[in-house]
Design brief:
- This protein has one domain: P-loop containing nucleotide triphosphate hydrolases (Rossmann fold), CATH 3.40.50.
- 34% of the residues lie in helices and 25% in strands.
- It has 8 helices and 11 strands.
- The strands form 2 sheets. It has a 6-stranded mixed sheet, with helices on both faces. The chain has a 5-stranded mixed sheet with strand order 1-3-2-5-6, covered by helices on one side.
- Strand 8, helix 6 and strand 9 form a beta-alpha-beta unit.
- Helix 3 runs parallel beside helix 5.
- The longest helix is centred in the last third of the chain and has 18 residues.
- It starts with a strand and ends in an 11-residue tail after the last helix.
């Protein structure tokens, strides 16, 4: 299945005939099977699917964290495929933000220093109004001078969210961004992500297993066995859950592993 924007909207990220293969011979695993997808700028896209469907692999390839076996990845006007280490470092610093479940905070830095680190590396100063909006929305005002070991898991995740958002990158890739937050904090962060798209034209691509989290997105793309099999626009938690149940029942994409790369 080929998924494109179809609206004439500017594309923030694109995958063209992307394959990802791990191992060789009998140990070979084909994680992505010729995936084609356009991700629109200033939109919130969620990627979902059963365990082993390829959703995290797709996000890692789109973000330049993993190389593709075949195909092309672009971020804006930059072709990610084939970039050397220096080019990838520049891309991640200037155009991409990351939110991961494991936080990836530097333990010797305060929360504020961790949040501002991408800007510091790029030699940029934060927009104070936007910085204050980010800090207040994720509820970190009284924790800015604490180090990660002095913060709860949920607070560390909120630092990671703020770090990704404060630089206003072209695309934010989020892997289970609320996985370690309670329901109230999750709603706050997801609402802020939603508003950053609507009010500030941020582009967010989120991998999640949670139908409630996915319901904050404009569009949900579903993978099964390394293929994009369907999508929803204007999703609700109920329609997302029903689609996931259908994927589990039908075994969508079964037999695709027999295809050759």
């Amino acid at each position: 299945m080929t998924t494109t924007s179809g609206t004439g909207t500017e594309i923030a990220a694109r995958a063209v005939d992307v394959w990802k293969v791990y191992g060789t011979g009998e140990a070979q695993v084909i994680a992505l099977h010729g995936v084609n997808v356009d991700l629109e700028r200033a939109r919130f896209t969620a990627i979902m699917g059963p365990s082993g469907s390829g959703k995290s692999t797709l996000m890692h390839c789109l973000a330049g964290l993993d190389t593709v076996t075949r195909g092309t990845i672009t971020i804006g006007d930059t072709t990610v495929t084939g970039l050397r280490d220096k080019g990838l470092t520049t891309l991640r610093r200037d155009k991409i933000g990351f939110i991961f479940q494991q936080f990836n905070l530097l333990p010797t830095l305060t929360a504020e220093e961790n949040i501002l680190l991408p800007l510091s590396i790029a030699g940029r100063k934060p927009d104070k109004t936007w910085y204050d909006t980010v800090i207040d929305t994720v509820g970190l005002r009284d924790r800015l001078h604490h180090r990660p070991t002095q913060l709860s898991g949920g607070q560390q995740q909120r630092v990671a969210c703020a770090r990704a958002l404060v630089a206003r990158p072209e695309v934010i890739f989020a892997d289970e961004p609320t996985g370690n937050l309670d329901s109230h904090a999750s709603a706050d962060v997801l609402g802020f992500l939603r508003n950053s798209v609507r009010d500030h034209q941020q582009t967010i691509v989120m991998v999640t297993h949670d139908p409630v989290a996915a319901s904050y997105a404009d569009r949900v793309i579903f993978l099964a066995d390394g293929h994009i099999v369907t999508e929803l626009t204007d999703p609700t938690a109920e329609t997302v859950l029903d689609t996931l149940k259908d994927l589990d029942v039908t075994g969508a994409g079964a037999g695709a592993a027999d295809r050759e790369v």
